[in-house]
Amino acid sequence: MPRVNPIDTEYFKDERRTGDFTVIGKTVQRSDALGHVTGRTEFFEDRTFPDLAHVKIHRSAHHHARIDDVDVSEALRVPGVLRVITHRDVPSNWYVVLRLIGIEPNDEPVLAEDRVLYKGEPIVAVVADSEAAATEGAARVRVSYTELPAVLDVEEALAPDAPIIKQAGTNYFVYEGHHCRRLRFGDVERGFAEADHIFEWRYSSAPIEHAPTETTGCVVVPQSSGRLLIHSNTQAAFFTLDNTALILERPFSDLQVKGGTVGGGFGGKVDVMVEPLACIAATLTNRPVKFVYSREEEMQVSSPRAAERIYIKDGVMDDGRIVARKVMLYVDAGAYSRHSPYGTTKACAHLPGPYTIPNVYADCHCVYTNRTPSSAMRGFGVTIADFALESQMDRVARAIGMDPLQFRLRNAYRDGDMKAHRKIAEGTALIEVIQRAAALVGHELPEEYRALTSSTPRGDQP
Amino acid sequence: MKIVNLKVNGVGRTFIARPETTLLLALREQLGLTGAKRGCAQGACGSCTVLLDGQPVVSCLVPAVTVDGSDVATVEGLADGRKLSDVQQAFLDGFATQCGFCTPGMIMSAEALLDRNPNPTRDEVNEAISGNVCRCTGYEPIVSAILDAAERRRAGANL
């Protein structure tokens, strides 16, 4: 089949050792495609087990509330309901998935204890013979609440008079003693003072749900050895195994995760949301247990991409050089950390974009609110930051009457430049990529911009 | 509870269905045919598409007891041994699968289209799969594969 975009063999020609390429440029069939077209690919829910029990969840009705009482008596009277699971049944109820890479504190309960921090937070799990009985049982759990003031905006959450929603005492993740992830390079205020123009704009994004066609789920099967076999559609088998074992207070070797077949993930299946409760249910009932999100749960409570708010202030010279950039960035982690402390660090690491700017200042905040916890999604941290940075580049270029591509070429980093993170730029190719993109769309660049390369030394060049 | 007789992929099958048993769950859990997927259980995603008396339906919305005596075609019945149907082969050759979860439903919608319209336009293909959601957003190769399958079918018919 002909490629839509033929491979350009001219670029980096001198860097290729001829004859070594055996796959690039050739068409290779996916190993799983035959299973996909015949319907034989085994997704986790395609396995059936005799005596399968089902888990459904009773979830918080409020964004922020104290739990005064939980009454499961009606749920237990539903025919087919085997038992209910509360936080008392979870051996180690508090976790944060990123503890595996040293992130702390454990800030999220598997099942809520005395407080709920977001609408849809799990409070009670109901195990039943059938999905219908589990759903009915979950609906009959009665929770009494005292509603608490909710914080639903990142900047309001950081205001001095905001209600503190987190046990740790701050509505933000603490980075090595600081209220945000910081980037400091040069003297940004001096840069602004010297600039011919100052531009400051705000960018914001809403949460984005991955909405995979296959919802999050797993089937846990107790083995005769006493181990638990977890059929899961997780994107992160080892994160799942390790976190589940820590929550269960069992050795890692007690669990086996079979996964790898994911009906759409996009980052939405890297949290550890269903396996711990399914394992507890399977252990308590000694039966295979399925816990799969309904479409409604997938939309309401699975972690979306974080909403972000980003302020970018640039100091720019008449000739198009950016001499100072200050970024205030807020990631809405929602109620719990999940992967957002890492995503916020990624956002900070991405600033100030692929441009050489002598004075840079950034504060990147991972903020807690009473919204659905956000987490990973395709390039999280970077994607929205890029939207803001590149929108800013276009707006600044137009404001000073400069072609947006020439404006980027003028500021693009080059080999040997010192980046704001105090790393020397190596192997840069932004200039060549922009030149090639311009040529492909018929955007004419003046000769001095066409002649630029990533290894052109800075000086009087544009 | 009711006894339901179906002809599934040409073979007579009998099972007992509760009033709330959907055709999808009967196929998956009682007849062991897991090709049709449960993506939303509300008729919105098309992952459970099968052919009921030749017509594409979202099987998650069809109570099994209402289709007693019908012909049902699922993705498992398309290949003849190891020989794939034209649509399956075109999906395979055209890289029209990514995660694969929407693929069986997508293929059944395509089979239904080509059964009634052997020479569809691109717009008609878009219309035919408008009820099938692909979240990997691979629609372009899917549409191209269906057009390719139509060509293969016509070439086969002319042999």
TrEMBL record, chain A:
Residue span, Aldehyde oxidase/xanthine dehydrogenase a/b hammerhead domain: 38-149
Top-level lineage group: Bacteria
Keyword set, alphabetical order: Molybdenum, Oxidoreductase
Annotated PANTHER family: ALDEHYDE OXIDASE 1-RELATED (PTHR11908:SF132), XANTHINE DEHYDROGENASE (PTHR11908)
Full protein name: Xanthine dehydrogenase family protein molybdopterin-binding subunit
UniProtKB/TrEMBL annotation, chain B:
Domain 2Fe-2S ferredoxin-type stretches: 2-78
KW Oxidoreductase (keyword) present: yes
Transmembrane residue ranges: none
Alphabetized UniProt keyword annotations: 2Fe-2S, Iron, Iron-sulfur, Metal-binding, Oxidoreductase
Protein name as catalogued: (2Fe-2S)-binding protein
Protein species of origin: Paractinoplanes ovalisporus
